[in-house]
Design brief:
Layout lengths: L1 H14 L14 E9 L5 E3 L6 E7 L2 E9 L5 E3 L4 E8 L2 E7 L4 E9 L3 E6 L4 E6 L7
Antiparallel strand pairs: 1-2, 1-3, 1-10, 3-4, 4-5, 4-6, 6-7, 7-8, 8-9, 9-10
């Protein structure tokens, strides 16, 4: 009986997992640094430091994402390249829908707080980001 109760408690916790709400989407704005990639096989790749960070800007369920290179003076090197997207609610989740002249793809926002972002693509690869903290030299 104890095992059944434990199993049901775990199942309930998993099924009530943190879902992204519309009010959470404001946290997407800003700079994000990749920290880990999890593959469907269970393999993981850790990133101690990255030469680029992702910048997201969202307004009214659409926005853009671009790669930027941070400098030591809290400024960034960037190009004019940006991936435009729209956000779409789908089955208790939000999907980032990208489309350009070459292709279209999507990523599910699996988790989003002010300090952590997890995106999952169609191949079930999870990208785990942390809020980027600018470099400062004193």
């Amino acid at each position: 009986m104890k095992q059944i109760c434990s199993f049901l408690t775990i199942l309930l916790c998993i099924s009530c997992g943190q879902k992204v709400k519309k009010e959470d989407l404001k946290h997407l704005n800003g700079y994000w640094e990749i920290s880990e990639v999890e593959f469907p096989s269970g393999d993981k790749k850790q990133y101690e430091m990255s030469a680029t960070v992702d910048y997201f800007e969202v307004s009214d369920m659409s926005g853009y994402r671009k790669k930027v290179q941070p400098l030591a003076n809290s400024k960034y090197i960037t190009s004019d390249d940006a991936e435009k997207f729209r956000l779409e609610p789908r089955q208790d989740a939000y999907i980032i829908m990208y489309q350009n002249e070459m292709s279209e793809w999507e990523e599910e926002i699996e988790s989003l707080t002010d300090t952590r972002l997890i995106l999952k693509n169609n191949e079930q690869i999870r990208y785990i980001y942390k809020r980027y903290e600018p470099l400062t030299l004193e």
